[in-house]
Write a structure and sequence with these properties.
The complex is a heterodimer of chains A (234) and B (228). Chain A has 234 residues and is α/β, with parallel strands linked by helices. In chain A, helix 3 packs parallel to helix 4. The N and C termini of chain A lie close together (6 Å). The N terminus of chain A is likely disordered. With 228 residues, chain B is α/β, with parallel strands linked by helices. In chain B, strand 7 and strand 8 form a beta hairpin. The radius of gyration of chain B is 18 Å and the shape is globular. The N and C termini of chain B lie far apart (45 Å). The chains are: A alpha/beta (234), B alpha/beta (228). Chains A and B meet through helix 3 and helix 4 of A and helix 4, helix 5 and helix 6 of B.
Chain lengths: 234, 228
Amino acid sequence: MSGAVSTSTEDVGFAKLSRLQIAWRAAEMIPDGSFVNLGIGIPTLAANVMPEGKEIVLHSENGILGVGPGPAEADRDRDLINASKDYVTLQPGGSFFVHSDAFAMIRGGHLDLALLGAFQVAGNGDLANWTTGDRRFPPGVGGAMDLAAGAKAIWVLTDHVTKKGEPKIVEKCSLPLTAPGVVKRIFTDLAVIDVTGNGLVVREMVPGLTLERLQEMTEPSLALADDWKELSVA
Amino acid sequence: MPIDKIVPDVAAAVAGVKDGDTIMISGFGFAGVPNDLIHGVLDAGARDLTIISNNAGTGTEGLAALIGSGRVTRIICSYPRSKGSDLFDARYAAGEIDLELVPQGTLSERMRAAGAGVAGFYTPTGVGTDLADGKEVRRFDGRDYVLELPLRADIALVQAYRADRWGNLTYRKAARNFGPVMAMAADLTVVQVREVVPLGEMDPETIVTPSIFVDRVVHIDNDREWDI
């Protein structure tokens, strides 16, 4: 991908991925031929970094199949935006449809995968991403509960810790749930982690990061996959 | 006598809107929002309104202006907070507006149910969450579902792309979003379109909203739009 590796190594010995790089890492792992919804936030960035050589059809909750990357500024169309309200394009073969059909696709089990953002993810796959309970920040559920209930798999794309440095991967969500036990894989700015019946398994970590250091930023205990590898940005 | 749903202007389009009405407003983000009709409601002066829309407006015009005017006492939506939703955020923080938060697929399906004469439906969405509190949960084939009820309105304000005098509609790209289901779910469906064509000119294979769901159409050549 273009954009290269983050340079914000500070003095901690490892570099965090950018939001676009998190999206890129998830996009690279999407199986060829999948129909995939991209949720608001980091996930919608994935449309700009889809792997070449695979045919993957991106779904947007506002009635689009075949979402393409963002357009050049001159080609922006106010009638063509994604869940994050960013301008997008339509791929050949794409289609538009009414909201209730967009959610029939979601709720009816027709989507292979949904990529969602998160406030918190628990070790058992519980997802919280719709309210902080703070009245200064109104809640927003959007399509998250429908996607969590209906897509065949849920991957979460998020920063590993909050802006205050608190873990977002927690023993038990303190925030109200979007859905219980639905998350299968977590992509953060530091690692790729699978949610399994035997707990959280780290598949990839950014160069320079150790399991011990990652564990300090993660509440549930982490196991390292036998075949784990460095999360290197191509 | 020929059926002619085309009205001359926005004031005629929203005539009859009254205090206490429940109003559906199409759109997702800034795409497909009937901003001219919203300003028609604002100009008509109706108060104590319940708004049903996916978002709660951004910036200072359109739905944001209606909310900022203090005439909206309740909003039913899936995602009120967005970049620029300051007018809603302030009223919500001050406790000046009631919010019923509805998952987006449940929101659109409740409209479809209302329009289709379905008394309710069971959805897996929201099971085990705060948004299912107080609702009937029933198990089918080993999975829990929540009972959701139809959602209807006194008036639906819809933006479409093209219409004829019967009220057949097509939409443009992702501006379609909630338009077709809102058009089904209101006692009075009012549509603003960018083009009006002679009857018979629209390809019947591609009409999205058939005329039966539409009551009034107003032609707005250059619909209001603004940066958010």
